[in-house]
Design a protein that fits this description.
Distance between the termini: 43 Å
CATH class: Alpha Beta
Bound molecules: S-adenosylmethionine
Oligomer: single chain
Helix content: 25-40%
Largest sheet: 9 strands, mixed
Number of helices: 12
Length: 355
């Protein structure tokens, strides 16, 4: 039997939401300690009526994403250990190697130091180990892909999409399946790109490049999607990564950025000029995540939508902007006993409420 205990690739401390009590085994929502979310955001006359919920796709699409993640990628609300063992019998042996590599990397980094995760990402390129570990992040991946699809639809973007730091291409694959856009996945880990190519081999609109930011490309993308990458890179490199992201987005296109750092006002202050020089202006923000992880709890992460060609700064108070939204909508939805546990994510709530 596989054991539980992987910690890497799980989000560490982005937004933790406290729970008051439990009811019939379901966590009851109490209060968002820190969270981010939505506001009315007006950029032009046409967009005066724009509301964040309109960014999200319909519930059928969200269910399709959930289904692909579960059936193809074995990313489930809780990992299906039996199924993973049957499909990938060598996963169990890898778990120990992974744990050892994790301990070595943490020891080398020392307390508070930057952990070199390259070996960990190489090991996680095995689809069984990935399924086992990344099920804890299923709700973020699900919501991130849903929001990316929502943005493509909302702005009728038909040009190429870049999935930066795609690892073995789970989000790239789902984007490729549910849109007709050309989707390019980018990651520096060779083993991850090899797995990504195998896992998406039947998708003619999906391709993978082994490279890292900063990256030069002749293609400028309608949407650059960058989820959970920045906080895996030392902060001193962030300005050049942000500059590169800006170069990769086409004029008028979007960057959808989810990273722990964006709710840190000091980080925003340090990188304000870089965003300005990259001509990436704030358009909106929302929360990814909800109920999930192992053991399941409520956790959310900030996603910021930036538009190329604008210079509106990212607000310092992203956290409080969206706390309102969590409190206003998500807690009631998540506490409703009729809401299935796997659907207690922001994408499902938005999709259900927006219709
Ligand atoms: C936690 S994984 C996130 C994978 C995926 N985006 C998701 O959210 O499921 C972080 C990925 O970022 C990649 N990465 C690290 N540094 C990078 C860089 N400079 N440019 C692009 N990708 C990078 C790593 O190789 C790793 O696959």
């Amino acid at each position: 039997m596989l054991k539980f205990g992987l910690t890497s690739c799980e989000r560490t401390g982005a937004i933790r939401l406290s729970m008051a009590d439990t009811c019939h085994g379901q966590a009851k929502w109490a209060k968002a300690a820190i969270s981010t979310g939505s506001s009315w955001t007006a950029r032009t006359e046409v967009e005066m009526q724009f509301e964040t919920a309109a960014l999200w796709p319909d519930v059928e699409t969200v269910r399709s994403i959930d289904g692909i993640l579960r059936d193809q990628w074995l990313l489930d609300f809780q990992p299906d250990v039996g199924l993973i063992s049957v499909k990938f019998p060598d996963t169990e042996g890898l778990l120990q190697r992974y744990d050892e590599a994790h301990a070595r990397a943490a020891q080398k980094a020392g307390p508070g130091g930057d952990v070199d995760e390259r070996e960990l990402f190489r090991l996680l390129a095995h689809p069984g180990l990935f399924a086992f570990a990344a099920s804890a992040r299923r709700h973020y991946i699900l919501d991130g892909v849903a929001l990316a699809i929502g943005v493509l639809r909302r702005f009728q973007l038909a040009g190429p999409v870049l999935d930066v730091g795609c690892h073995i291409g789970a989000s790239t694959n789902v984007l490729g399946k549910l849109t007709s856009s050309r989707i390019v996945g980018l990651d520096p880990v060779g083993a991850a790109i090899d797995s990504a190519r195998k896992m998406s081999s039947g998708l003619p609109n999906v391709e993978f490049v082994r490279a890292m930011l900063p990256w030069k490309s002749e293609t400028h993308f309608d949407l650059v999607f960058c989820q959970d990458v920045l906080h895996h890179v030392p902060q001193t490199s962030h300005p050049k990564l942000i500059a590169s992201l800006g170069e990769l987005v086409r004029e008028g296109g979007f960057l959808l950025l989810s990273a722990i750092d964006v709710i840190d006002p000091a980080w925003l202050e340090r990188n304000r000029t870089t965003f300005q020089q990259a001509r990436l202006g704030y358009f909106d923000c929302d929360v990814l995540g909800g109920y999930g992880g192992n053991p399941a709890t409520f956790l959310g992460a900030t996603a910021v939508l930036l538009r190329k060609g604008d210079n509106t700064p990212i607000p310092d108070d992203l956290a409080s902007i969206s706390t309102r939204e969590w409190d206003a909508h998500f807690k009631d939805y998540a506490n409703d006993p009729k809401t299935p546990a796997r659907e207690k994510t922001q994408a499902f709530e938005r999709a259900t409420r927006a219709r």
